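dumping this here before i forget
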Amino acid sequence: MTEPFLPFSRPTIDEQTIAAVADVLRSGWITSGPKVQAFEARLSEYFGGRPVRTFNSGTCTMEIALRIAGIGPGDEVITTPISWVATANVILEVGATPVFADIDPVTRNIDLNKLEAAITPRTKAIIPVYLAGLPVDMDRLYAIAEHHRLRVVEDAAQALGSSWRGKRIGAFGDFVSFSFQANKNITTSEGGCLVLNDAEEVALAEKYRLQGVTRSGYDGIEVDVLGGKFNMTDIAATIGLGQFAGIDAVTAQRRALARHYFTSFGTDFEARCGAQLPVADFEQSNWHMFQIVLPERIQRADFMERMAKLNIGTGYHYPAIHLFKLYRALGFAEGMFPIAESVGRRIVTLPMFTAMTENHVERVVSAVKSILQRE
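structure:
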């Protein structure tokens, strides 16, 4: 009998949350309102009392952070080539110049040695990315930023529930941006939040979130910056509140699934199959994704097609940003960041979502081994 299709990601929304959304729809207040405020308060509590504002994506959060930091034309911002393209696009959106630094071949995060070597007098900010929820060396990152007087916009889109040496990502640092998109550990269907530093930054974030508007009294209104339309709805915030109630359990479950992946692959998998497993970090990573890097002998599309024939979904996160046409037109070319190019060509995301079971993991591992051992 054919096994049912196993997607690489799937959100879990409980009936209590569905009912709460229905209540919001009946209330007549469905855009930004009391649920958004409640969600922001819950997030702030989780991040140790730091101010938090929610938005309709985890992309605009990074753009707004750059604008608050005063980043614009003539400035350079350093980031990784291995991320969703939004990470670099927001740099272009504010008129600044993206600068890439190659990745560490083991963690697949930005190589901090290469990041520091890429700093110039024009560098004003860094956007590190925590791929699959694994943080970079946060102590080293912030030491570099402090030494060179740089702002940090953490692309922690995948890292809600991750930590660094016992401290939650988002509870310390500079700007920290999270995503609540549908495949994240905690979702609002679409959305994101930005952790800020002080009341002045909060006021600017609120302006940029909604057309630059500041209101006062019953009819006072002023616009002194160019904002956009980035507010979160009460519908989305209600989903977020329901999801957030189980964040610790979600993180624990995903770590347990990751452990079972390693157990099922076995200690000889890399030697026998030539594929690379991720870093076995069960303390700091939230295991947003479980990714392997395929051996050169097999094409990724071929591997993914064979997995699909076994009714198992896969993804790839991510191709190297600098090789897209938009970035080639800016002067980037193949060979500039060889580790990122190699990983971006061979990385595959295996199924990882909260409702998975150990049997699902074993099925995936069996399929991966059967394909790679035939090559």
